[in-house]
Amino acid sequence: MAAFLANVGVNSAHAARSPLFGDGRFVLLPIPERDSWAPPMLRLGDISRLAAYAPAAWRERTVHLDPDLSAPTPTYGDNCRRAGRAFSLRRAASGDLIAFLARLHPAVGPAGFHVVGGLVVDDVLADVTSDPGPGWWDRNAHVRRARATGRWDSFWVFKGVAARSRALTKAHPFARREAEAVFGRNWLWRSMRSELQTIGSYTRAVRRVEDLGEEWLRKICLP
To answer: Mean pLDDT for each 10-residue chunk of the chain (223 residues)?
Structure first.
């Protein structure tokens, strides 16, 4: 088995920020979609648990809620065939862990990366080029978008084991020490770049992890 680390949620390019509270709790805000709203896509204002933490101007925006770990069937999707950042996920198989990393902002102080949840792969819907019909994938953001726009662009959807896939109650910091625990000490930590910038650069693409790094992620993510 292996683990994969995927960077999710809004980032420095977006006006919205995912808040980190003083007790470690957090809210992960999804990235906006490029397409205008059409059913069955989601508007941020339709997701009450998230809308209160976003700029008012975002509430009518179509958003890409992925991963969706609160659903009865947790899912995560990506363009593993077409997007270089997701190529490694084509190797994901049943029992593997996809851990989710997000940029969170405390009320005071700088932003930082945190591990915010994980999905243990149960099944995979691969290379989706036409509507697969009803199934466990119905709530996934990629399926919603494709049904609204008619663009079935070879995306993949990963089904999570419900009992072992979850958003963490409290975010787990992921700074240089944690990055080296997972990936070893082969990253370049240049003095002209912050830890946040270095981690963001190295995790822009989904990274496959084995051995001690996988063990570390499983300890953090799994109930």
So the answer is: 96 93 97 94 94 92 95 94 94 97 96 98 98 97 98 97 97 97 95 95 96 96 89
Q: What angle do CA 139, 123, 173 make, to 5 degrees?
A: 75
Using CA atoms, how far apart are residues 213 and 136, in angstroms rounded to an integer? 30
If one counts every other C-beta atom within 10 angstroms of the C-beta of residue 51, the result is 16
